[in-house]
Amino acid sequence: MSSNRRVVLIFGGFVAAVAAAFYPIFFYPLSHTEEYKKIQSVNRAGINQADVQPAGVKIWSDPFKPK
């Protein structure tokens, strides 16, 4: 195996490992927003955001929520 091919395989393996690590963290939730909205509505039930939010911090609205 030539030296160039070995370097390409090493860097390719590194890129594949990073992509495999980012998929469940970033890309899956980004492509399944409805599922994650349902999960968050169950997890946040009964929590008053004003009690949890620090004083003076603006509470941002949901960008996906139709107005």
Describe what you observe in this structure.
The protein has a domain at 3-40. The mean pLDDT is 84. It is 66% helix and 0% strand. It is an all-alpha fold and 67 residues long. The protein has 3 helices and no strands. It is elongated and about 60 Å long. It comes from Scleropages formosus. Keywords: Membrane, Transmembrane, Transmembrane helix. One of its GO terms (cellular component) is mitochondrial inner membrane. This is Small integral membrane protein 20. The chain crosses the membrane at residues 7-28.
Strand content: under 5%
Task: Give the tally of β-strands.
Answer: 0
Give the helix/strand class: mainly alpha
What distance lies between the first and last C-alpha atoms, to the nearest angstrom?
60 Å
SSE pattern = HHH
Distinct helical segment count = 3
Radius of gyration: 21 Å
Largest sheet: none
| Global geometry | elongated
Mean pLDDT: 84
**Residue share in helices?**
55-70%
Give a quick summary of the entry.
One of its GO terms (cellular component) is mitochondrial inner membrane. This protein has 67 residues and is an all-alpha fold.
What are the defining features of this structure?
67 residues, mainly alpha, 3 helices, 66% helix, elongated, MITRAC7/Phoenixin, transmembrane helix
